[in-house]
Specification:
By secondary structure, the protein is an alpha/beta fold. 36% of the residues lie in helices and 23% in strands. Helix 4 (118-131) runs parallel beside helix 6 (174-183). Bound molecules: S-adenosylmethionine (SAM).
């Protein structure tokens, strides 16, 4: 069954334009992208339809989500979207659905780090540090805490709501993510506000000598 997330629909064009900018220089190449926590599947089919040079591997831990992704692929006839796979991003990369090291040009995680425990953020950065190609990109999207502070008030409320749903969930702190990125051979390359409240951050897998660039 095709699940519908109004939030995913609202963010999809903003995110598409970010991805377009990020991958523009490589748009003459055939690229491979992995989506972690794909949810309904709305984003991945939208991106695939608009960026035919990327083959996407959607994934989610929930069977309901994988069924929805399948339904979106069928309904939209999106080419370049592979069969969704079970992938628990909190697990070591060796358990990431058999994806080899250095196999992805881009990994995206949209509203995943906020809706899961910190072990997922750790897994996302550890795994991406292995699965991304050198200079490959990890794009994370969603609201964050900055130095322990969350603004504006609606993001603070979202953080509280998430923690009520699950005490281990909540907005991750960007400085903690920076450390995680650093210890996995990545660094933050850029950030951009998409919509009015959520921030897209791009992390690049880069040789260690470049880590001090930012
Ligand atoms: C808030 S939803 C976001 C879905 C979609 N990316 C979007 O923005 O519409 C979070 C998704 O992450 C999935 N998820 C949670 N923990 C996960 C994990 N450890 N590994 C992979 N997926 C996970 C959930 O099943 C859910 O589909």
């Amino acid at each position: 069954m095709m699940l519908l997330s109004p939030a995913a629909e609202r963010s999809q064009d903003g995110l598409l334009s970010v991805l377009g900018e990020l991958l523009e220089a490589q748009s003459h190449c055939e690229l491979f992208g992995l989506e972690l926590g794909s949810g309904t599947g709305q984003h991945v089919v939208h991106f695939a339809q608009e960026m035919p040079f990327v083959t996407w591997q959607p994934s989610d831990i929930k069977e309901e989500a994988r069924n929805s992704i399948r339904a979106y692929i069928g309904a939209t006839k999106a080419k370049k979207v592979l069969e969704p796979v079970y992938l628990d991003a909190s697990q070591p990369w060796e358990k990431w659905a058999g994806l080899p090291q250095n196999s992805c040009h881009i990994i995206i995680a949209i509203n995943l780090l906020q809706y899961s425990p910190f072990s997922t953020a750790e897994g996302v950065f550890k795994g991406s540090g292995q699965i991304l190609k050198q200079n490959g990109l990890l794009m994370t999207y969603g609201p964050y805490a900055i130095n322990g502070t969350i603004t504006p008030i609606c993001n603070e409320q979202l953080d509280q709501t998430l923690r009520q749903m699950n005490p281990d969930w909540g907005l991750p702190d960007v400085d903690v993510l920076r450390q995680l990125a650093f210890s996995n051979g990545m660094r933050m390359e850029r950030m951009k506000t998409v919509g009015n409240l959520s921030i897209q951050r791009t992390w690049i897998r880069s040789p260690r000598k470049n880590i001090y660039d930012t």
